[in-house]
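Please fill in the sequence for the structure shown.

STRUCTURE ENCODING:
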């Protein structure tokens, strides 16, 4: 998946029987293996796999903060495997889910940002520039179709692809990033995922990683603050 080389400093590393192990920092590799457990055709796509997945991050004790920053947490994670033709409509569907949930919890102010790669962090990313450009354009296009404003944040992308993030503002005026879509052309290639297209040839699916609440613990913390405990 690339985590060992590009995410190692954020992982818990341990040894077992003289082998190095990392405690699970992401749910993505499991979703890739689940997709790969059976053959797929274009008729199976989009395939949407959702889970409440527990992950672990190595954080310095000084930055731990109640429910807001913890070392073990649960994400409402989903991985959507789709074709190039389905990509934009899937992104639009996810954005609509984000908006519905934000409104239900009565957050009045929120904004969208697109996290892109930057030249300064070039060695921290997987994949070639053309794929990254296409991924960033797909996220922009979906927001434009929904007539939704957004800002770009260079250098804030995950190592496997750009992301579209929602920054919500609580009743005390503090901003939090919860919902996110990460567009990924890389992990499906690295795990050699395939589907059979309409002409009978193999193609590689695109992966969308998405969370609505993000860390459930952190969202509960934000909600407690936002509603003054009510």
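FILLED IN BY: designer on duty
SEQUENCE:
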């Amino acid at each position: 998946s690339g985590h060992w080389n590009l995410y190692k400093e954020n992982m818990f590393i341990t040894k077992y029987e003289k082998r190095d192990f990392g405690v699970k920092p992401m749910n993505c590799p499991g979703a890739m293996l689940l997709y790969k457990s059976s053959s797929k055709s274009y008729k199976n796509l989009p395939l949407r796999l959702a889970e409440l997945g527990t992950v672990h991050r190595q954080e310095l004790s000084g930055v731990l903060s109640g429910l807001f920053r913890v070392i073990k947490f649960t994400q409402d994670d989903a991985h959507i495997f789709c074709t190039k033709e389905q990509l934009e409509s899937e992104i639009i569907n996810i954005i609509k889910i984000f908006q519905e949930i934000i409104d239900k919890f009565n957050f009045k102010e929120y904004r969208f940002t697109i996290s892109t790669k930057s030249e300064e962090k070039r060695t921290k990313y997987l994949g070639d520039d053309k794929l990254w450009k296409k991924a960033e354009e797909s996220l922009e296009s979906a927001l434009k179709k929904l007539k939704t404003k957004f800002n770009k944040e260079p250098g804030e992308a995950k190592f496997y692809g750009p992301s579209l993030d929602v920054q919500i503002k609580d009743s005390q005026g503090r901003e939090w990033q919860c919902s996110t879509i990460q567009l990924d052309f890389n992990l499906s290639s690295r795990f050699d995922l395939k589907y059979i297209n309409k002409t009978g040839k193999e193609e590689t699916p695109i992966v969308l990683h998405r969370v609505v609440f993000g860390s459930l613990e952190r969202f509960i913390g934000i909600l407690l603050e936002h509603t003054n405990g009510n």
